[in-house]
Automatic annotation (TrEMBL):
Domain spans labelled DUF402: 18-156
Catalytic residues (UniProt): 23
Annotated residues for binding of Mg(2+) 2: 105, 107, 120, 123
Record SUPFAM superfamilies: FomD-like (SSF159234)
List of residues binding Mg(2+) 1: 87, 103, 107
Organism of this sequence: Fictibacillus macauensis ZFHKF-1
Family in the record: Belongs to the Ntdp family.
Record protein name field: Nucleoside triphosphate/diphosphate phosphatase
NCBIfam families named among the record's database cross-references: PRK13662.1 (NF010183)
Pfam families: DUF402
Superkingdom of this protein's organism: Bacteria
Listed GO MF terms: magnesium ion binding; nucleoside diphosphate phosphatase activity; ribonucleoside triphosphate phosphatase activity
Length: 175
């Protein structure tokens, strides 16, 4: 499988467990892409929801996907610091059309002081019942949720000091 080279512009697509398209982000620039990790950047890009609604992101962001982790992280660069939006979902795949993953509803929002809140537990529980998530899947998601919280608390991976700044500088080289 070949991955897009740095500077390539791709789309990101998230799906639900039942295979329906959930959301698409356009015009995301690859900064690093291989079979282990994808790091990308974007700024004020068009997002299309499954119902056809469209909106634009408000700030530059660095996107982090790891092939071994059931979550991805969006680091948003705002005037008052870095905010992170973390989506629990499958590891990514690249199929030469888009970077894709299945979104499993649970999210964590991380604030500049590295405090965080868990979001959408009700939505996760509803979809878990509606779409009959297997017990193994529920276990994987909850284990990865714990791993993600540990990474946040330890300031590892995309939460490491300097990570967002480093990749944002790289992103600016491609603009």
């Amino acid at each position: 499988m070949s991955f897009p080279t740095p500077g390539s512009i791709i789309d990101i697509q998230s799906y639900k467990h039942n295979g329906t398209l959930h959301r698409t982000w356009e015009d995301t620039v690859i900064l690093k892409g291989n079979s282990s990790v994808v790091i990308a950047g974007n700024d004020r890009i068009l997002v299309t929801e499954s119902d056809g609604r469209q909106w634009r992101t408000r700030e530059p962001a660095i996107c982090y996907f790891n092939a071994q982790q059931w979550f991805n992280v969006i680091g948003m660069i705002r005037q008052d610091g870095f905010y992170y939006y973390c989506n629990l979902g499958t590891p990514y795949i690249w199929d030469n059309e888009a970077l894709k993953y299945i979104d499993y509803d649970l999210d964590i929002k991380v604030f500049p002081d590295m405090s965080y809140i868990l979001l959408d537990e009700d939505e996760y529980n509803l979809h878990r019942q509606m779409m009959n998530y297997p017990h193994e899947l529920d276990y994987i998601i909850k284990k990865n949720l714990q791993d993600l919280m540990s990474m946040i608390n330890q300031r590892k991976g995309p939460f490491e000091p300097g990570f967002i700044e480093q990749w944002y500088e790289r992103y600016l080289e491609f603009r």
